[in-house]
């Protein structure tokens, strides 16, 4: 990792290879380490691969204000990183929260984002009302995203024992849960977010002790408050994005999700709608046995799909 100064701020990034650029954007609670399996295959295929720790994460620009984590700030960071690295165009690949950053970057800056890949979170057109408001009206007041809205509460819980936090979160939404066990996104009355999770008897095969230690060290250094601020801008993002309503992502696109990702239960309709709202969708793939951390749990399948997609883009054959 190296630190790069940009017009947004300083970002800790991993930058390897030469050739057409691929920008990898992680989710929550992850870091650039979540892309560890993608670097070698993409670099070997002739691509320049860039993965930042995003705003608020370990070693990167981390302002205090909640309002500083809107989707417009996050898209601005992605473009500022490309500027600082003198990259004219890149393919944006995002997982989890990184997927909305990638989708919105493609929507707002087609001059800089040549194509886009979303993992685990599909692109969705702007809805008729703020998302959190819609959740409350639907009676989902104990949804974890609503639980996250109170500053200080969840970060105190997660930071109490970062090792336990990371172990339980990474395991609980993975495809490694035993048959019949399902993570549910609802916080019990009087409980905390970790009460929705499971304690593993042992780490799943896709997550080594070393990988877990890297995540633990990162969040022990940076904490969870600023990454949680991304969630605290969900309704603000809706309010600010009115001018984007009706725009379409016309660049080549790809979507990947794990068959055992618990988000698939609620996001299934959005996944089904992708061919109707993405004019140049070149694939919509559900990877068997993988859960939410699809690029970590099924790296060979994800890398094959990425290389096939990149190889079909003009000027991106590596």
Automatic annotation (TrEMBL):
Organism superkingdom: Bacteria
Alphabetical list of InterPro entries matching this protein: AB_hydrolase_1, AB_hydrolase_fold, Epox_hydrolase-like
Molecular function (Gene Ontology), one example: hydrolase activity
Hydrolase among keywords: yes
UniProt keyword Magnesium, yes or no: no
Keyword line: Hydrolase
Gene3D superfamilies to which the protein is assigned, alphabetical: alpha/beta hydrolase
Location of the AB hydrolase-1 domain: 20-298
A Pfam entry, by short name: Abhydrolase_1
Entry's transmembrane regions: none
Name of protein: Alpha/beta fold hydrolase
Phylogenetic classification of the source organism: Bacteria, Pseudomonadati, Pseudomonadota, Alphaproteobacteria, Hyphomicrobiales
């Amino acid at each position: 990792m190296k630190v790069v100064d940009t017009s947004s701020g300083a970002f800790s990034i991993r930058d390897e290879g030469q050739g057409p650029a691929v920008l990898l954007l992680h989710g929550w609670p992850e870091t650039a380490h979540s892309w560890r399996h993608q670097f070698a295959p993409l670099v070997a295929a002739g691509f320049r691969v860039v993965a930042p720790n995003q705003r608020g994460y370990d070693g990167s620009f981390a302002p205090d204000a909640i309002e500083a984590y809107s989707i417009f700030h996050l898209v601005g960071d992605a473009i500022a990183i490309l500027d600082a690295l003198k990259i004219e165009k890149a393919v944006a690949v995002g997982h989890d929260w990184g997927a909305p950053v990638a989708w919105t970057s493609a929507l707002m800056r087609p001059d800089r984002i040549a194509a886009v890949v979303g993992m685990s979170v599909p692109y969705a057109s702007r809805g008729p009302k703020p998302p959190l408001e819609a959740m409350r009206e639907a009676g989902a007041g104990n949804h974890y995203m609503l639980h996250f809205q109170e500053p200080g509460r969840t970060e105190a819980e997660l930071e109490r024992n970062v090792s336990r936090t990371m172990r339980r979160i990474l395991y609980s939404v993975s495809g490694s849960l035993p048959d019949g066990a399902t993570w549910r996104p609802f916080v019990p009355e009087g409980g905390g977010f970790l009460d929705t999770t499971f304690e593993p008897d042992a780490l799943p095969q896709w997550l080594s002790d070393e990988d877990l230690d890297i995540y633990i060290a990162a969040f022990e250094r940076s904490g969870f408050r600023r990454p949680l601020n991304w969630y605290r801008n969900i309704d603000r993002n809706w309010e600010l994005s009115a001018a984007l309503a009706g725009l379409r992502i016309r660049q080549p696109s790809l979507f990947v999700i794990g068959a055992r990702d618990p988000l698939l239960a609620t996001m299934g309709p959005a996944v089904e709608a992708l061919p109707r709202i993405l004019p140049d969708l070149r694939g919509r793939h559900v990877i068997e046995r993988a859960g939410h951390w699809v690029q970590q749990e099924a790296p060979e399948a994800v890398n094959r799909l990425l290389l096939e997609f990149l190889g079909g883009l003009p000027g991106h054959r590596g």
